Model the fold of this input.
Amino acid sequence: MSTATSTPETATPGTSTPGTATPEIPTTGRALAHWWRKAWIWFVLTALLLLVAVPSMLRQTPDDRLLSPDSASPQGALAVVRVLQDHGITVHPATSLHEAVALADEHPEASVLFHDAADHLPAAGLDELAAAVEADRRVLVEPDFAVLQHLAPSVAQAGQVPDGDRLASGDRCRLPMGREARSIPAAGRAYRAPDAEACFPVPGTGEGPSGPAHTVLQTADGTLVFGDHGIFANESADTEGHPVLSLWSLGRSADVVWYLPGLQDAAVDQGPPTTEQLLPDWVRPAGIWLIICLVVLMLWRGRRHGPLAVEPLPVVVPASEAAVGRARLYERFGHHDAAARSLRSATLVRLSRTLRLGHGASVQAVVSAVARVTGRDPSRVAADLDVAQVGTSRDLVAAGRRLQGLEEAVQAALTTDPTPPGPKTPDPDGRTP
Done:
């Protein structure tokens, strides 16, 4: 006769038994809600950052360069550029020598306005510009000594124009634009040139061998030199004769190359050689070889030790292993005094427990109790417990033997007399034994 035993079926997570319906838990929605509670602050910070950064990135930095053709500031030259464009003249801005030379070659009839207020263009660049642009196409605004030497060698500087009411074109002015302008404010620099057509003489400069100094002149080869940048600046573009001078000088052709040198034209000092340049040639391949060897060594050692062992926490370490490990650390670093103090503390704890003195017994109480039990002199017992002079391994071994001998003497004495010298308890009748 056989009996059939049935065991209840256990439903595992994710499965459903016949006749029962397992409701679907919306885990995705809960996960999204939990993720949003943790990450919403980062979305807010990102939105604030975008609100601050995007407008700053989209907002163009105003061009505050002197005589910039795109600047509407008082020192810019947008007003003159707009008037030229209204008369059908195309202005081509250039911020580098390469760009200016390319535009000058592309428009061979164009006038080239050159103004280098910060002296960015070096001598080599001035020579290249002089070779690319003919003299009769050059319009120099407040040129210094270096610019005159390369682009208008017949012109010499004559100092600053003294403050005054205005400068008249003069009786000897033969430039049509100078005669038409009649007068301009006294400002800028003055120049001298022996064979130039000059206008607006500066009072007080005298005749001299080359005549008086002037603020506007045209050399024999056709280069125009203007001593005041205010002739083209927005704040004074419509002052007295400035409109005539600016439009007449730049309206000679259908195109104008407006060249203002920038930092990309400045000569960069290479400075002293770097450490890499001073090292010999074999250092680089040797360094690469050492890096390869280091990578191979890391891979070899990593494969030798194997993967990390994962152990669940907390980890229970036996007291004996902890004691042995601490002892090995003391031995490795030569801390014999610390090891001796640990042995002394353990001995005092065990003696207090053996002699029933309590956990908080003082060292003097332990010494007195040991002396009473063993019959030794208290000074000798105190000397056995003293480990202050331990400094070497030999001293540590000797101190350990003294402490162990002291414990063995107490155990031997208690074996002979099993009543330890603990606190006396009175009899029921009130007498102390």
Summary: The longest strand covers residues 90-94. The domain at 78-265 is CATH 3.40.50 (Rossmann fold). The radius of gyration is 50 Å. Residues 1-25, 424-428 have pLDDT under 50 and may be disordered.
